[in-house]
Protein 1
Amino acid sequence: MSKEQKPHKYWLQFMNERVIDRAYVPTTHEHAANCLTHGCLIIPSFIAARQLIYHA
């Protein structure tokens, strides 16, 4: 990561360090955030997409 892309020190407490030779294992906070953003928003996105197609 370049200096501009480095996360703020506050956010580092919620992140695991990157490793080169192993798969990344998210922290509990990261996993919960991923579930919220990817899981809970799929249904509303599907409904919105269906409405857009219906009204097209």
Protein 2
Amino acid sequence: MCAASRNRDCIQGNQAIVSGEQGAMKEFYRDPIGILKEAVQGFMGDDGTGMAAEAAYRLVFALPPLMIFFASISAVASQYTGIDAFDRLLDRAEDGLPEEVFGTLELVLQSVEEQGGVGLLSFGLILALWSGSNAIAAIVKAINRAHGLEDDRNFVVQRGVSLALTLGLSLLMISSFALLVFGEAIGNEIAGFFNLGDLFTLLWNIVRWPVLLIMFMGALAMLYKFAPAERVNRAAILPGSIIATIVWLVASYAFSIYLSLADPGSAYGVLGGILVLLLFLYISSIVIVLGGEINAAVMRRLHGSAPVMERGDHPLDLYREPIDNAVASTGGKAATWAVLGVLVGGAIFGGLFRRNSGDGSPPL
């Protein structure tokens, strides 16, 4: 909000930013190759491969609790819906992952499914949030480096931002999980309730796959929007989100072809699946970091083509949304409360399920 005393200057500043954003998008469409080259140069100069390796390493430790969480959801959902959610989850994972990666995850998922239950679900959720926030923190650091920003926020604020992003991404993942596993059943229920017929069911089963792609793109956009230490305008995050999504799909497909030809499992034995999983996470992390570099390159182009504003000397000041000190202070407090909320909420969540299970054991 603009204060009354500086309302005119604030409005002029916002108009300049909007005009600059439009110029940046035109510049991107006019010279995409140049922007991609600049992004790759920035990626190499910022040690993007090293940052991606750190993120992949932390993602490895986030995967077990994440698998516990989704396998537990499948077990609970199967009990209450009568749908064999676990087998559907395995089928979708087998369709979407390289064979060696799926084989490694399948063993863990089956082990978790045998011990499934609501108690394990609550444990997996809390552990997945914390472990996932460590991986997100590495990605946040890489995106800040791409933008030339020094994240000088205190530890509580940084951890709160990572937890908040992890929670938001988890909600998107749960929604994606529901569409993958229960999408057909949901479509049938909607068609039956509103008497929409078979045509709606057919359209639903076609449309839900692009929706999943849009949700993945939205997850990347969320990272690129809220990860930087300074808030940036929404229009500048679109190029990186779109290109990163496309590159990730192409890279995953190419990686699957490579694995079908190379067969690393024959050379490394049981370790082959683990090595392939690490490589897959590493490639995914590279794509995410590269998307951040693309957004940074777009904003640098915007700065070079738009009039310089009186909001500081940093090259990204032109793209930052005006933030009052009170708003910045509120953001820090919100991050602090996010940390406390996750801890207290996790304790209450686990306690409720322990009480409902009577003797403290999982009810399943």
